[in-house]
Amino acid sequence: MSAKGPAMTTAKSAQGETKFLDPGNVPVRRGSSYPAPYDEPVAGREKQALGDALGLRNFGVNLVRLKPGDWSAQRHWHARQDEFVYVLEGELTLVSDAGERVLAPGMAAGFPAGNGDGHHLINRTDAEAVYLEVGDRLPGDAVDYPDIDMRLENSAERKRFTNKKGEPYGAEL
Fold first, then answer.
1. What does each C-alpha distance from 93 to 7, 62, 70 come to in angstroms?
2. Which residue, 52, 121, 56, is CA-closest to 91?
3. On the chain, which terminus has fewer CB atoms closer than 10 Å, C or N?
């Protein structure tokens, strides 16, 4: 248990239960599962899977921290899954096919599935930035990375990174 509160609490009623938690007790994942060298710009990224910790099944919610110079991801877009980000602290530069835009605390951005507008966030400031990342979990998604020779196949059968020709990078995830 942290000084902030219990790792997970469940309140039960006759109709069901409600779960709540202290994010400080959710494990931090650093970096990404990208193959080298594409993993380097996101090596310092820290994610906490709040949705997973709360047992959410239809969408994910991540609390993400980017130190100065860190990227959220390689620039990408999803074929089937929507994405949403909401900035809590600091400033982030949203880079997309439409150009660049600084997002400050309280600002949000949405990326509809199949849009084809590759996007990512970069912390170009001298301070840490924190945001919420929300996405659905529709099966059969594919992710395209327009600036590099990489795609992600994310099906019920497998999850793997390939080059644009479909040749796999290493083992399945």
1. 33, 18, 11
2. 121
3. N
The predicted model scores a pTM of 0.89
From 117, 61, 71, 62, select the one nearest 92 (Cα to Cα). Answer: 71
- DSSP lists the bridge partners of residue 25 as none
Lowest mean pLDDT among 15-24, 48-57, 104-113, 127-136: 15-24
Residue listed under structure tokens 């400031």: 125
Q: How confident is the model at residue 159 (pLDDT cuts 50, 70, 90)?
A: confident
Domain 28-137 CATH assignment equals 2.60.120.10: yes
**Tokens 């931090």, residue located:** 28
Q: What is the mean pLDDT of the chain?
A: 91
Query: Amino acid letter at 2?
Result: S
Domains of the chain: which residue ranges?
A: 28-137
128 within 8 A of 65, measured Cβ to Cβ: yes
Residues 6+ apart with CB under 8 A from 94: 100, 101, 102, 103, 109, 119, 120, 121
